[in-house]
Write a structure and sequence with these properties.
It is found in: Cytoplasm. Its cofactor is Mg(2+); Mn(2+). It catalyses: 2 D-alanine + ATP = D-alanyl-D-alanine + ADP + phosphate + H(+). With 329 residues, the protein is of the alpha+beta class. The protein folds into 3 domains: 103 residues, Rossmann fold (3-Layer(aba) Sandwich); 147 residues, ATP-grasp fold, B domain (D-amino Acid Aminotransferase, Chain A, domain 1, 2-Layer Sandwich); 63 residues, Dna Ligase, domain 1, CATH 3.30.1490.20. The chain is built from 10 helices and 18 strands. The strands form 4 sheets. Strands 8, 13, 14, 15, 16, 17 and 18 form a 7-stranded mixed beta sheet that branches. It is globular, with a radius of gyration of 20 Å.
Length: 329
Amino acid sequence: MKKRIALVTGGFTGESVISLKSAAMVETQIDREKYNVYKILIYPGDWYHQTADGQKVPVDLNDFSIAIQGSKITFDGVFNILHGSPGEDGKLAGYFDMIGLPYTTCDALTSAITMNKGYTKAIVQDIPELFVARSVQLFKKSELDPTQLLKELRLPLFVKPNNGGSSIGMSKVKDPNELQEALDKAFAEDTQVLVEEFVSGREFSIGVYHSQGQTTVLPATEIVSSKEFFDFEAKYAPGITEEITPGRMSDEELQRVNRIISQVYQKLNCKGAVRIDYFLEYETGKFYFIEINTVPGQTETSLISQQVRAIGKTLKEFYSELIEEMFQK
C-alpha cells in the first residue's frame, strides 16, 4: 500500500517564494509508485491543501489531516521543503513531534539552533581543522556602537541577520561609513545580527545526508560569483554566478573537507539532507565554516540537485531515500 506523504511548503518569510519553487520540483520527482503526495501550503493562519480543481481544503491542526469529498486523509510522514520559518527554525518540527508524525528534516532542537548563525558557530568551532571568522553577535535591544565594532573587528565585514536565509538583509561593509546602514538593513529582517570579518577564499557549498545506516557527503559545488558575495540575486538570478560541481579541490582538500563535514553533521545531530557553506582561505587553504541550511533548496538548478546528479543518482531515488529514512527509528 502506498504511503501518504504531505509535501509541506509556503512559509512566513520572504523565502516562501523559493519554497514554492522547491516544492514544485519535488512534487514532479517523488516516486508515485511508492507514495501518494499531497501538497500542503502553510501561511500565517492559513494551512491548506489545494485540490486539482482549485478547491481549498483546510488542514485540521488537531492531527494534521484533511478531508476530501467527505473522506478524512491522514499522513504517514511529511516531506518538509518549507524554507525559513516555520519549516526551518524548529517550529513545525516541534508540532509534528507532538502529534507523532515523522518528517524528513532535522528535529526541533537542531533546527532552532542551526537557524541561528552565531549559536551554530559556537557549537562547531572546536571541530578539528574547522575555523570560524571572528565575529560579534548583536541584539536589537542592546546599545549599538558601530565605533566599538570597528575596534573589535577588521574591515571588510559581513553584516547579516542571524536567523535569516537566502542572504536576505546581508551586506558587505568595506567603509566605516557604510556600517550603520548595513546594521539597519539586517535589523529590519531580524532582532539578532551577526557581524563578522571577511574571509578571502574560494567559496563552496556541499550537501550531506544520512540514509541506510551511512552518512553520504555529496560533491561540493564551487561558487564563482561576479558579485561581491553570494547574495540573493547571485543565488537566484541567471548568469551572475558560475557553479562548478564537483568543485575544484586537491585530493588533500577533498579528504579534509569530507572529514569536517561529516563531523559537523554529527555534532549538530542533523537528519535528512542539509547543505553547508564554507570557504577555503586563499593564503592558507584553511576551512572556514560559513553556515548550514537544514532545508536546502530543491529546484532543478539548486546546488543539492546538481550534487545528487554528480554521483549518478536520480532525484527520484534521492527523495525516496530521504522519505524512507524518516521512518527508521
